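Input chain follows. Return structure tokens only.
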Amino acid sequence: MRAGSYRFGPFEVDRAAFRLVRNGAETVTLTPKLLDLLLHLLDHAGELVTKEALLDAVWPGANVTDNAVAQAVSELRQALDDHSGSPRFIKTVARRGYRFVAAVEAVGAPTPPPVPTAAAVRIGARETSSLDAYRAATEGWLRIESLEVGELQHAVDDFRRAVSLDHRYALAYTGLANAEFALYEATRSDNEPAQERLEQAVDHARHGIVLDDGLAEAHATLALLLVSAWRTEEAVSEARRAVAIEPANWRHHFRLGHASWGDARLKAGEVTLAQYPTFAFAHFQMAMVHVARGRLQEAEAILRRGAAVQERQREHRERFPALGLYWLFGLVSVARHDTAGALAAFDRELRLADPERLYGREYAMSAHYGRGLTLLLDARADEAVAEFQRAIELYPDYPQAHLALAAAYRRLGAADGERTATARADAALVVIARTKPIEAAIVGAMRRATDEPDQAIALLERMLEDAPPGFAGWAIPIEPLLGELQKREAFKAVLKRLADRAR
């Protein structure tokens, strides 16, 4: 049977609204894939549904295994408060599949197939018959791709207008997700990022998928957003879905690389560059893997290639200009004891960083911070103080800059300055412990690296233990403020674990 809604136990699932409700009021949070899985089981209630049938129905064309089905069923059971040992709803049939065993009531009329009309013929729901909606969405995409921070709210407004004119316009909802996400990204280095922007973006992307599950851009966008929410496993699944739908689209491979880690990210980066050779940021993503593995020479080689592309992009005003490659090159150079090369790289990043463009202020701050760390290592503490203060002017509460400033004042014997900077770092740590727990663990380790090295290492060990799969802690091998830990065997174990995660 295939109904618009189903009731079973205390639950009702509404296909049109694409939601699960408990006791008539409480919405149960499920990913789109889990809702698809539940609906398929309900459509075949009482029947044996094989694993192969579930893969075809819920993950069409995706490169997933039986383990993905088992994991999804386990998550669905958890949401339903069901148990495999004594199932009320979903029973496992050993080596075959699953059966929905509860009594199910079909509610509402069967879902009819969509009927195209002369006024509005769509491919799924990605097109619109409204010229005004199309114009608004096009303007929104152009504003996003300008990467100008001042244009991002206008992009949100454009997409909101598009979806108000055509509430079935899936591509416009996907654009709205991208615009909200760009506004979130403009705050990502703040101690309290605009989390509500990220949550809204995820909701819009999910709605785009509900309207048109075959819209690859919606799946790829959702993957991008879920990475920032540290939901990396679901992000990989969504990115793979996008690639399966449109394998020749470089954007989807880039987002698959962004969601993936280790060899999977390297492979996705290679495919991205094969399809779009001037997309410089793919080099950055690949270099991150080599840094986490401790292979700094390989990271440096990749960054050199990416930096050359970044230079050409700036000269010719190409689309998708990258930032950050020189900053990362500088940190790798510091770790390889090339202070002159590091300073030159940070200077180049500062010349390229435009604070009016997305990520420009962030990487300008990072470049000043990197210059200060390099000068501190080069016994030029007074110059380092000036660089850290420039970084703090751009991000007044950035805890790493205050910790580094405290270290510089310590070198200079300026006790009052050291105390003030340390206090500001500690205050910032209290905030990011709530908003950015992974970063807070790393900054906490920096705070303790000199005086409490064992506690610093314990913080890093716990972070890697608790972090989801992916790139958490990838820059630990090149972070100068953790340099005091380098000779300790326990820290070498942390680096090994980090490298293992990156394989």
